[in-house]
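Example record

One chain of 512 residues, shown exactly as stored in the release files.
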Amino acid sequence: MTPDHEVPAVIAQVWNEILGTDSTRTDSFFEQGGTSLSAALLISRLSRRLGRQLSMVTFIARPYLADLIESAATEATGFTITTAPAEGGRHPVTANQAARLARVRRARRSGETDWNSLSHLIVVGYTVRGELDPDRLSRAVDWVVDRHQGLRTAFDWETDQQWVVADNRPTLEVVKDARERAWEALRLDDGRLARFLLTAVEPGHWELWISLEHIVADRPSVRAVLADLRTAYDQGWGVEMADRQPAPTQNHTAASTEDAFCRSADGLQAREYWTRALDGRSPWVGLSHPAAREVQDAEGRRAVRHVAKLDTDAAAAITATALKDGTTWLSVALVALATAVGSANEEPEVGVLVPLSNRELPGFDDVVSFLTNIVPVLVTPDLSGDPADRLRAGRNSIIDALRNASYPMHRLTRETVPDEWGQFQRRPFLYLDVDLGSGDEFGLDGCQLLEVVDEPESALWGLAAWVEVRDSAVEISMTHQEGFLSREVGAGLFEAFHRHLVEYAAIIGQAR
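Predicted structure tokens for this chain:
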């Protein structure tokens, strides 16, 4: 552990490394260009360097250098960073990975012959214009794959174990139709859990598609892979340059660190919070709606998507707040969604599932693994009360969830309601995801890249809402299965969500 008298200098050094600035103690991280992603990187890197766990929620609420230095002294905990398992052999899996394998196990035992058909992909695609060098890109892909062992890992669904495969690794493939190939299932047992695909459209025009198996990847993992790919391409690195960057934490070590946290005082405190908050209920709180229907077939699972952009004033209020206080703008989206749904089903309490990063744990900032935690946030949208009071209550709920978000919900499910284990979609649910753009889009030297956004073909069971902040614009969307809610009912819920979002944005705009 870093001696107390050295802590301020270490914090200032890491802060300046991430932001590329020379900051003073009165500077705000977000006002200097920091984002939600770089904030997670800062807290995780400092936790590792200092040998003590820092709180993301405290930092989001007080994002000043002086406050971070103070909190490092007052909020340090006794959680011990675990030593990574030795190379070679088999390793345990994280709670998220174990839940995926439990679903595979259940499908296999019910007669499913190809368990790899349950592969779940995260796919990103880009149109590339400019002088792209395929050989240079191939070397960069080799460097990234060598750097992240999760991309060359195999899983055993019978024993819940994983191991690194040395001789079967993903490479850049130049193919005729990268987009179509990107969505083909990956085999969970052969050690290639990523796919890098390139298609030549015409001179100076390419398409680049990247598929990552969800069992070793989540959104922060994708960003880590893209950042490393850009660095390696721009620098011209290949596998022989493996030592050019410090080695990241590896996927196969994440389970031991996660387990150590869950057994620590902090982990036990978080578990107690969720046990008390849920009071015997499943973490996967269900969604009720008077117009909901049973989904009968694949036709009924087709996605219906509603999209809108906020007006200039609402967008300005949200973007300004998002850069300074992540809990407030998240609570705006949360309470707007809960109010829209609560008005329709007349329920006094609405449960919303929110993905929160588990990367507060030391060393998890750059690991490529499946660590995002889906946490239930219970909101009581008192429709007869003051909207400002609803926002305050929603923010308090978010802060409580953030404080305890490192305890995996899949682990809690197995420990408290084992009949729900591995059955994430046993009932319809309400889901909310918010995304603050990193401000540093993926790019390659000498090329212009534009992300390709595919319309979803299928949707989750229930309602899923997204709020995306990009520079000064805010886009909102909602998807649902056509067989679960009619297009008209879904459109009405989306309109209410949109209306309440503008209402609450005006409140935080007045408070600025």
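Notes: The longest strand covers residues 121-130.
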